[in-house]
Automatic annotation (TrEMBL):
Family under the similarity heading: Belongs to the bacterial solute-binding protein 8 family.
A GO cellular component annotation in the UniProt record: outer membrane-bounded periplasmic space
Protein's UniProt name: Iron ABC transporter substrate-binding protein
The species this protein was found in: Pseudoponticoccus marisrubri
InterPro entries assigned: ABC_transptr_periplasmic_BD, Bact_iron-sidero_bind, FatB
Domain Fe/B12 periplasmic-binding: 42-302
Principal location class: other
Keyword Signal: yes
């Protein structure tokens, strides 16, 4: 909980008007344009996707949540203070730190109003059919905010080239069904869902159009998977992503109904690296890593 005393003690720091000489920039966010002092120095990021992209741009962070789940962000964590979890920021620690900017998003987006009482806070959530468009927008926005325009431009160029390569790899290779495995159960995701960009950005046909776009997907049975009979199955293992013990996705899908699908018969069940995709979806490194996996899987298939 936010302690009133902690907030009051730092109210002057939070509400102080920036010096007249401070340069400001306006950047797009998930909730609309935001005008902020340029090149903030003490920055906290509470969204792993934001941490991912900021790390790729070389932006130092003073605070991040724990756990951060992803090994490739360990160096960031080693240099940053822990300021809560993905869902619950440590408001007292943040008040003491008095950051110039807090970047929220995804799981921490519900805390934006509360965080704004401590420091300027922006919501940089990436979500929706235009997922990769938003990823590029976030890269460009960070480049503008942190005076890294050249690095951001190059990073967007790399992302666009990777998307084009992945789209070419999947072209003409059939349809796909995205499944998330969680403790022995499976959910399916289609276009418009949190993982729907795998279809929309790459023109990868859906094996089962019309699936629910709910955050947690549409719960499905193995009979459903057999009936849909996808050419490809793309698997995300939630348990593995969050380090949870339990039945692994490969064991969950090891049954006669799945084994009889075209995907299984052709060796086209792809177990994606779930941590980056599930935890840091929207981070540029996460996205490019997933695209590399798809390029490798589809380019290696007989077409």
């Amino acid at each position: 909980m936010i302690r009133a005393a902690a907030l009051g003690a730092f109210a002057a720091l939070v509400t102080a008007t920036p010096p007249a000489w401070a340069e400001e920039v306006t950047i797009p966010t998930a909730t609309g344009p935001a005008t902020l002092p340029a090149a903030p120095q003490t920055v906290v990021a509470l969204d792993v996707a934001a941490i991912d992209t900021l790390e790729a741009l070389g932006v130092p962070l003073a605070g991040i949540p724990a756990p951060h789940y992803l090994d490739y962000l360990d160096d960031v964590a080693a240099q940053a203070q822990t300021v809560g979890s993905l869902f619950e920021p440590d408001f007292e620690a943040l008040a003491v730190m008095a950051p110039d900017l807090v970047i929220a998003g995804g799981r921490s987006s519900a805390q934006v109003d509360a965080l704004s009482r401590i420091a300027p806070t922006i919501d940089m959530t990436v979500w929706g059919d235009d997922h990769l468009v938003q990823v590029s927008e976030r890269i460009t926005a960070y480049g503008t905010l942190f005076d890294r325009e050249d690095a951001a431009e190059k990073l967007v160029g790399r992302l666009e080239a990777k998307v084009a390569q992945a789209a070419e790899a999947v072209r003409g290779q059939g349809d796909a069904l995205i499944l998330l495995s969680n403790g022995g159960k499976v959910s399916a995701y289609g276009a418009g869902s949190r993982f729907g960009w795998l279809h929309s950005a790459l023109d990868l046909p859906e094996a089962s159009p019309g699936l629910s776009t709910e955050t947690h997907g549409e719960a499905v049975s193995f009979e459903f998977v057999a009936e849909v009979d996808p050419d490809w199955i793309l698997v995300i293992d939630r348990g593995a992503a969050i380090g949870q013990s339990g039945e692994a996705a490969a064991a969950t899908l090891d049954n006669p109904l799945v084994a009889g699908t075209t995907a299984a018969q052709a060796g086209q069940i792809v177990y994606l690296d779930s941590g980056p995709l599930y935890i840091a979806g929207g981070g540029v490194q996460s996205v490019m890593g997933t695209l590399d996996e798809l390029i490798g899987a589809f380019a290696g298939a007989e077409g």
